[in-house]
């Protein structure tokens, strides 16, 4: 009942706010109560609940007004940044801010953040601002950004609305500097032959406006020098002028695709103080690429005047593409995709949607996908859902707010304040706050890093390392291995996630900080020193949010220093599994013996190795290190540790509090690393071993494929997963042709002990056994691999590895590796096809034929999506039965419907060979 009332209130407020002139609309609790025939206090109660849930906004006027959140987004063009406002003017001031042309550029809050910030600073500089040089690859949007910069200057009042934006492509006059000079500065009558009248130049046309010189690198040295007079003195001299120059007021913006240092005169570059690099589309964030994709589809919807029902798979593929020609290539791909859909759709009614499917994508995308490696190959999920894009839409309706990520810090501290009001300063508050801080730091570190801070992340890391090392030395403490990284990330993001606290919020957070300082004075001292360093060294503003973050984070990050005993680290997946084990053991022992590294559940072993490497780099380790891991798959973690390791590393699997307690006790009693590892592993029936530093040849298995390195990489990935840490073997992918080159194997043998080659085609390398991929799939010829591994492992290890290989090299995994399709989705579809066929044919399909159909139909779907069907079949010698073909056609209709393809009769012939053969 309550939910129904709340939904009714929301529908009513949305109805009342459906107009465009929201600023003059007054929606009160009385209006809603009268419309829904409910009591005023009931309406007020549910309106305030909508405000709390983010579905409405409240303005504390008299009477109090309410606005629907969706209506405000539509009218303002941005999301309201809070739920309550003091006045209507404050709320709708956001609309004026949303008109900022530079703020509307895709990427303004992400990869173009610092660039736009510098451009705005250049615009604000007194006089005609500062000249700007835009650099970046062709098609990255420099011309568009220059025009938006002009619009911004007009919007801010730096230029009048009737001022000129004059654009010149310098490449057109690169070989004629005198002609260029006459175009830029004008000329006087008689300045040269044919100059029979005075003519104004572009600087005069752009007076009190803006001049954009594109491809400015084509000016050459003489052309650049001709600009010095204006850049130095603000005056220009027409060609043939002998008396005096004249002043003009022109804002200058340049653009180039070339390297600044090697292409321009240094005297020219020194006169352009603001140099802004625009990243290419491949270097833009995932959010930005998706937004650009939707923008170009929206433009197409407006052009063809049809609603486009765009498959989410299409959006994903276009967003994930690598574009050699930047934005222009993406735009062309989308234009061709819409054109293809139009050609297939035939005549459309006015209300018909134009469906954009994967098969409409240009052939170039499929060719590129087929040639590229694992990291860039396309994967189709079978997701048939669509995004409707109508001509009447605005881009803001299709994309999320860019600044949502920046609000993570704000939301975290809002919840910390709420927890304090609920719990006070007790263990429950400290525990929940610690969880919130850890979640925030995970979000910052594991999300896509956006290069937009005025102070670069790497500089913050270096400065933070110096400071934390100094604190560790001065106070006889040490910080957790990634402490400097986490603090650096926080202050990096704070550069563009800074907000003015309200008086009540400031008072509450200050109270929390003061109470923490009274119970943890040492942490408060560390906080004071770090914030002072940031203020003095980097001139970044510091407030109570920064202090409170450091106080809460350092509670868990600071540990008492130890002597040079064996270092012990718990590595465990989960939010705080490792830290919980370490904290319990250290409290029981009474000393900080056990360190920890908490790991996200989806972290890969290379990243774990990097974290251990970072720990080693920041600690002095002489007697050795014991890694206690929670999974057997991490038993080979030492292979992923970088740098020079000149001490033994002990590894114990299946870590528990009991394991860590036993290890810590023996470390305290000065036992050697081998004794600790072996006795602990034996006592708890776990695996344990010690790896000593030594230089030996690594054992190598080669993977290859005659169609390219991509498939070889896929086979490598499957073998890596199969071997995991069971065997001391490296698997590397090599190009088939490279392996066949004379002497190539001998080069590899100098570094590796080459055991075998696994692939699709035998490169016929003398003395090295070849294991065909298809044999692994059906479980044959495994003895070849067993023989190859016999020299590096015992029979038990080999048997376990072979079992894992036979499990991993299933049809599903192989399809997923060798095609663009999502194996699980396509196999489900093929299952339906086979069951339909069995039903129609009234006879079963043997498992061998089902296996063959999984592979064949998967590849068939891929061929059809690429528009590369096999159109020929030897019907003359075929014994295909017409009824069988009809049954196959009917059964396969599910494939045609799901993937928007048509299966030609020739392809049915090949399927008939499998079914009836």
Automatic annotation (TrEMBL):
<dbReference type="InterPro" id="IPR011608">
    <property type="entry name" value="PRD"/>
</dbReference>
<feature type="domain" description="PRD">
    <location>
        <begin position="821"/>
        <end position="917"/>
    </location>
</feature>
<dbReference type="InterPro" id="IPR002078">
    <property type="entry name" value="Sigma_54_int"/>
</dbReference>
<dbReference type="InterPro" id="IPR036634">
    <property type="entry name" value="PRD_sf"/>
</dbReference>
<feature type="domain" description="Sigma-54 factor interaction">
    <location>
        <begin position="105"/>
        <end position="339"/>
    </location>
</feature>
<dbReference type="GO" id="GO:0016740">
    <property type="term" value="F:transferase activity"/>
</dbReference>
<dbReference type="Pfam" id="PF00874">
    <property type="entry name" value="PRD"/>
</dbReference>
<dbReference type="InterPro" id="IPR027417">
    <property type="entry name" value="P-loop_NTPase"/>
</dbReference>
<dbReference type="InterPro" id="IPR003593">
    <property type="entry name" value="AAA+_ATPase"/>
</dbReference>
<keyword id="KW-0808">Transferase</keyword>
<dbReference type="GO" id="GO:0005524">
    <property type="term" value="F:ATP binding"/>
</dbReference>
<keyword id="KW-0067">ATP-binding</keyword>
<dbReference type="InterPro" id="IPR004701">
    <property type="entry name" value="PTS_EIIA_man-typ"/>
</dbReference>
<feature type="domain" description="PTS EIIA type-4">
    <location>
        <begin position="565"/>
        <end position="692"/>
    </location>
</feature>
<protein>
    <submittedName>
        <fullName>Sigma 54-interacting transcriptional regulator</fullName>
    </submittedName>
</protein>
<dbReference type="Pfam" id="PF00158">
    <property type="entry name" value="Sigma54_activat"/>
</dbReference>
<dbReference type="Pfam" id="PF03610">
    <property type="entry name" value="EIIA-man"/>
</dbReference>
<keyword id="KW-0547">Nucleotide-binding</keyword>
<dbReference type="InterPro" id="IPR025943">
    <property type="entry name" value="Sigma_54_int_dom_ATP-bd_2"/>
</dbReference>
<dbReference type="InterPro" id="IPR036662">
    <property type="entry name" value="PTS_EIIA_man-typ_sf"/>
</dbReference>
């Amino acid at each position: 009942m309550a939910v129904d009332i709340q939904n009714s209130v929301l529908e009513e407020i949305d109805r009342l706010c459906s107009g465009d002139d929201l600023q003059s609309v007054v929606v009160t609790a009385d209006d809603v109560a009268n419309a829904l025939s409910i009591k005023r206090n009931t309406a007020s109660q549910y309106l305030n609940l909508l405000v709390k849930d983010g579905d409405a906004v409240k303005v504390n006027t008299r009477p109090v007004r309410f606005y629907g959140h969706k209506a405000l987004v539509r009218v303002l063009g941005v999301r309201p940044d809070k739920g309550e406002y003091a006045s209507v003017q404050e709320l709708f001031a956001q609309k004026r801010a949303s008109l900022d042309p530079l703020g509307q550029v895709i990427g303004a809050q992400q990869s173009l953040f610092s660039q736009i910030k510098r451009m705005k600073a250049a615009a604000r500089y007194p006089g005609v601002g500062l000249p700007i040089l835009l650099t970046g690859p062709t098609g990255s949007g420099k011309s568009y950004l220059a025009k938006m910069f002009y619009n911004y200057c007009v919007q801010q009042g730096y230029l009048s609305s009737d001022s000129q934006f004059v654009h010149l492509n310098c490449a057109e006059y690169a070989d004629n500097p005198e002609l260029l000079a006459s175009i830029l500065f004008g000329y006087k009558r008689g300045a040269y032959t044919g100059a029979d009248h005075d003519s104004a130049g572009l600087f005069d046309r752009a007076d009190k406006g803006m001049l954009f010189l594109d491809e400015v690198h084509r000016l050459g040295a003489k052309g650049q020098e001709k600009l010095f007079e204006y850049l130095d003195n603000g005056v220009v001299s027409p060609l043939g002028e002998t008396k005096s120059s004249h002043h003009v007021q022109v804002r200058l913006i340049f653009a180039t695709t070339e390297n600044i240092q090697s292409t321009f005169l240094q005297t020219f570059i020194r006169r352009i103080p603001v140099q802004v690099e625009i990243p290419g589309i491949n270097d833009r964030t995932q959010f930005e690429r998706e937004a650009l994709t939707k923008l170009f589809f929206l433009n197409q919807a407006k052009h063809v005047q049809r609603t486009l029902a765009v498959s989410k798979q299409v959006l994903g593929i276009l967003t994930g593409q690598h574009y050699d020609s930047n934005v222009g290539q993406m735009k062309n791909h989308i234009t061709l995709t819409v054109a293809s859909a139009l050609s297939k759709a035939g005549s459309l009614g006015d209300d018909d949607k134009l469906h954009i499917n994967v098969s409409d994508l240009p052939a170039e995308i499929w060719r590129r996908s087929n040639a590229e490696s694992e990291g860039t190959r396309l994967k189709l999920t079978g997701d048939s859902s669509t995004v409707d894009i109508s001509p009447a839409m605005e881009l803001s309706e299709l994309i999320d707010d860019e600044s949502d990520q920046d609000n993570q810090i704000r939301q975290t501290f809002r919840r910390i304040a709420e927890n304090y009001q609920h719990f006070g300063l007790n263990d429950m508050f400290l525990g929940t706050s610690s969880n919130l801080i850890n979640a925030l730091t995970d979000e910052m570190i594991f999300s896509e890093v956006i290069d937009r801070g005025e102070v670069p992340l790497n500089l913050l890391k270096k400065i933070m390392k110096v400071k934390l090392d100094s604190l560790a030395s001065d106070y006889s403490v040490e910080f957790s291995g990634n402490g400097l990284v986490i603090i650096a990330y926080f202050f990096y993001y704070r550069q563009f996630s800074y907000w003015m606290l309200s008086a009540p919020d400031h008072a509450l957070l200050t109270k929390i900080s003061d109470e923490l300082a009274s119970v943890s004075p040492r942490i408060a001292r560390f906080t004071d020193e770090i914030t002072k360093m940031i203020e003095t060294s980097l001139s970044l503003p510091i407030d109570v949010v920064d202090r409170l973050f450091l106080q809460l984070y350092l509670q868990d990050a600071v540990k008492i220093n130890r002597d040079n005993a064996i270092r012990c680290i718990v590595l465990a997946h989960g939010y705080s599994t490792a830290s919980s084990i370490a904290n319990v053991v250290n409290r029981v022992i009474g000393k900080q013996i056990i360190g920890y590294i908490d790991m996200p559940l989806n972290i890969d072993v290379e990243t774990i190795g990097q974290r251990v490497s970072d720990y080693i780099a920041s600690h002095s380790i002489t007697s050795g290190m014991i890694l206690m891991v929670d999974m057997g798959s991490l038993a080979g973690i030492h292979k992923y540790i970088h740098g020079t390791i000149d001490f033994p590393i002990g590894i114990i699997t299946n870590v528990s509090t009991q394991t860590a307690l036993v290890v810590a006790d023996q470390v305290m009693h000065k036992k050697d690393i081998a004794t600790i590892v072996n006795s602990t592993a034996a006592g708890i029936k776990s695996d344990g071993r010690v790896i000593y530093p030594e230089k030996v040849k690594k054992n190598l298995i080669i993977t290859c494929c005659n169609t390219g390195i991509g498939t070889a990489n896929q086979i490598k990935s499957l073998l890596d997963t199969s071997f995991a840490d069971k065997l001391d073997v490296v698997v590397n992918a090599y190009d088939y042709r490279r392996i066949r080159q004379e002497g190539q194997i001998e080069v590899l043998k100098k570094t590796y002990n080459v055991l075998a080659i696994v692939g699709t085609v035998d490169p016929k390398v003398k003395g090295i056994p070849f294991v065909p991929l298809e044999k692994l799939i059906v479980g044959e010829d495994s003895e070849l691999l067993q023989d190859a591994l016999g020299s590096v492992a015992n029979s038990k290890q080999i048997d376990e590895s072979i079992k894992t290989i036979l499990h991993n090299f299933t049809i599903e995994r192989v399809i997923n590796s060798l095609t663009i399709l999502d194996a699980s989705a396509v196999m489900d579809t093929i299952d339906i096809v086979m069951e339909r066929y069995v039903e129609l044919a009234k006879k079963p399909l043997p498992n061998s034929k089902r296996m063959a159909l999984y592979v064949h139909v998967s590849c068939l779907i891929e061929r059809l999506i690429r528009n590369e069907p096999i159109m020929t079949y030897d019907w003359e010698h075929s014994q295909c039965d017409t009824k069988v073909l009809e049954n196959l056609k009917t059964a396969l209709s599910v494939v045609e419907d799901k993937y928007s393809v048509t299966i030609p009769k020739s392809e049915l012939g090949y399927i008939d060979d499998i079914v009836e053969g």
